Amino acid sequence: MRLSSIFALIGTFLAAGVLAVIAAGFSAQFIEDGSKTEVRRALELADMGWTEVDADGLQVFLAGTAPTEASRFKAVSIAGGIVDATRIIDQMLVEDAAEIAPPRFSLEILRNDAGISLIGLIPTNANSESLFETVNDVADGAEVTDFIDRADYPVPPGWTEAVRYAASKLDKLPRAKISIEAGLVSVKAMTDSPEARRELEAALSRRVPPEVEVITDISAPRPVITPFNLRFLIEEGVARFDACSADTEEARKQIIAAARAAGLDGSIDCTIGLGVPTPQWGRAAELAIKAIGELGGGSVTFSDADISLLAIQGTDQSKFDDIVGGLQSDLPDVFALHAVLPPPASDAEPVVPEFVATLSPEGLVQMRGRVGSDKLRQTADSFARARFSSDGVYTRARVVEGLPEDWPVRVLAGLEALSYLTNGAVTVTPDTINVSGDTGKKTASADISGFFSEALSESAQYEINVTYKESLDPIAALPTPEECVSRIQLIVSERKINFEPGSDTIDASGADIMDDIAEVLKQCGEIEIEIGGHTDSQGRESMNQQLSKNRALAVLEALRARRVITSTFTAEGYGESDPIADNDTEEGREANRRIEFKLIRPEPEEDTETGLESLEQDSEEETSQETDQDDSQDEQN
Questions:
Q1: 559, 521 Cβ separation under 8 angstroms
Q2: What gap in Å lies between CA 88 and CA 83, rounded to an integer?
Q3: Which CATH number is associated with domain 106-219?
Q4: Which CATH number is associated with domain 355-472?
Q5: Where in the chain is the domain with CATH 3.40.1520.20?
Q6: What is the mean pLDDT of the chain?
Q7: pLDDT tens-place string over residues 134-153
Q8: 3-97, what's its fold?
Q9: How confident is the model at residue 626 (pLDDT cuts 50, 70, 90)?
Q10: Which one of 46, 53, 277, 340 has the largest count of C-beta atoms within 10 Å of its C-beta?
């Protein structure tokens, strides 16, 4: 082979190698630029512009400072969706946690019959021991579930006060969700009745720290009204409700507005409940009340979808026909109207038969008047003895003939209505039943009206003149806090609570005294009481202080064992600091060894030490006490 041919072949191979290297370089640069551009575009679309992207050959480098660890991981994941994950080199830093804004701390306390659950995120340094102690006390053996996470950040302002307030109200909320944030407590709960809801709302509004806002959402199940009833009257120019029911707040406002337009003054109690026969109830009641107003008097009674309208005697017939005809035309189809215009009075005044039953404040029942048969007389007597005290029923009714056919039903209905009263009378005549008297039940008038609507005919007339008196109401008649404490002070002044010598154990004679005090407290409702322990001056002062505190706690535990609600009670020990007699005599020392009950009156909210701090302080006091106790001196206390 000629030498020139060899050189030509070698040159060709060299040229091809150079071209390959150049092509590879261009390809690597193209891949590098493309990867960097695509990754950067994807990160910017994900609002992660803080990420720095660079490429070196096939490797893609991610740099920059991520606001959180989650953000860093997200950036790596996005880049891994553009290029192969093995090509990604993570060089990112995470922002110092101290520079990140603290999280939003919140705590939810869920309580029901099954137990209590704690869920949320709280500061690590928050003093939560007193909260857990309260939760365990309120749970009283029920399950307590802890789903709380903690974060190492400063306790935000208002957090401690909000937790302390929520813990103080937990025992009043057997079925509730309490949401706690810094300076805010939201309570969502359910009660058994509207009365219980009002009591709970009042309890939650007491002793609210100024740093805390409280939001409540308390619901009560609506009562089931059967039959769904309403009774409106205008008598001698005076309008009133004997019973008022509505299915919605809108219907209630509609009914009240119609009654105001018809001349009703004063407050109106219209119950919102379940059981309405039609959504058109409010409209029908509005039309009927308006008709009574246009007639100038009379009554209208609803019992479910049945309406009974009774005009006053002497109403013009044409006016009656016109108004009743318009009402009948305007009423929704579901309602049935029965309207009555009494005939004009005749000149003769016949003797009107009547049956009268009276109930005295002492519970004695006397029945007189007329009954249609001996069987009815016996039935009325047995019925009264079943409803009232059998020893307090006296029957003087006379058997006569010619009474209306429905007389037995009217007599028994009148006796049933009388049972709603504390004292009063019921008068039954052929035309009407009149019920009057006093009661301690707010809903007595409505209950009697509903019963009459169900038991009597549509055209039956009745009058209900029942007066609610708070003094007869067993709930409203509860003693005042001052009266409660006075009763307890009278008990302990006559019979002293004694302890075993040198001990906090109540002696054998104290059981009966504690029983009597517990009975008084069970009638008092929720009041704040301080139980104070006192000793004489014998023995060391520190020992006397602790002994007096232990004795006060022993009284508190004795009350709790007797099922007294003690969540608002406190126990304090005053030792020998407050004598009421001379400690130089045995009689004086005996007087100074005592338990006192004092009423705590509400004061402006002040910062108080937590339960843990109190325990630590007590522990320090116990540690600092001298151990060489004088047994003979201790026995005197």
A1: yes
A2: 8
A3: 3.40.1520.20
A4: 3.40.1520.20
A5: 106-219, 229-340, 355-472
A6: 84
A7: 888 888 888 888 888 888 88
A8: GMP Synthetase; Chain A, domain 3 (3.30.300)
A9: very low
A10: 53
pLDDT higher for 348 or 167? Answer: 167
To the nearest whole percent, how much of the chain has pLDDT over 90?
Answer: 33
Domain 481-635 has CATH 3.30.1330.60: yes
DSSP 120-177: EEEETTS--HHHHHHHHHHHTTSEEEEEEEEE-SPPPTTHHHHHHHHHHHGGG-SSEE
Asked if pLDDT for residue 555 goes beyond 80, the answer is yes
How far is 213 from 184, CA to CA, in rounded Å? Answer: 5
Q: What angle do CA 401, 404, 408 make, to 5 degrees?
A: 90
Residue ranges, CATH 3.30.300, the chain: 3-97
Would you say the pTM of this structure is higher than 0.70? no
For residues 481 and 527, the answer to whether their CB atoms sit within 8 Å is yes
Residues 229-340, CATH architecture: 3-Layer(aba) Sandwich (3.40)
| Residues contacting 312, CB < 8 A, separation 6+ | 235, 295, 296, 297, 298, 342
Question: Which residue bears the tokens 């008598």?
Answer: 235
Looking at residue 612, its pLDDT comes to 42
Q: Is the peptide bond before 227 cis (omega within 30 degrees of 0)?
A: yes
